[in-house]
Amino acid sequence: xxxxxxxxxxxxxxxxxxxxxxxxxxxxxxxxxxxxxxxxxxxxxxxxxxxxxxxxxxxxxxxxxxxxxxxxxxxxxxxxxxxxxxxxxxxxxxxxxxxxxxxxxxxxxxxxxxxxxxxxxxxxxxxxxxxxxxxxxxxxxxxxxxxxxxxxxxxxxxxxxxxxxxxxxxxxxxxxxxxxxxxxxxxxxxxxxxxxxxxxxxxxxxxxxxxxxxxxxxxxxxxxxxxxxxxxxxxxxxxxxxxxxxxxxxxxxxxxxxxxxxxxxxxxxx
Length: 270
Fold this sequence. Notes:
By secondary structure, the protein is mainly α. Helix content is 77%, strand content 0%.
């Protein structure tokens, strides 16, 4: 019993961070709303929230863990909104979960055991690579496949790699997930977004406790951010279900440019 109490206290003990000003917290909420819309419709919202969490005073490792609180709560809202509006998965997410969860667990464990001095340049390099990739080939993640494919070994390998990245960093994971689901497996954009969010929710349930156990979750900031992402996720999901694929493509392009600008600014400030 004492061991269980100790583990729980470590998991939910907030790291030592300076109290952010009300203005910064308001900015964090607004960033959460924008990120929630982008994540629900396309992806790239974490490119806004990760730098914003650092702006309010969190270290890279704590920011990386903290944003998972918002990712999880927003994802639950988005999935529930999809279901209420009649959009269903038809079994794609469960068939990809084993490799995704295995990869995410490994990625989260690796990230939670790296020092900030290592994480900072790694995150910076990843942001620069994403910025270049999204600027050069912005439509590559939304291109619909020529035919529907069954989930085979290659899809599992790709899912495991995506899970590894999502568990390690999270930011931008929606883009390769959409590429796998839409471009490779041939799902419709709306259904692919539902599957994407279900997969992210599933691996976040596993990844978040890893970061919490390492003392890398600032729960107050995470819940403030989540209040924005849940609202944005609800709005974004309603928009895409009504507007269909054309609206989704427009928001994918918006997500690309917003995410690219945020990444370049983050890199330039290092």
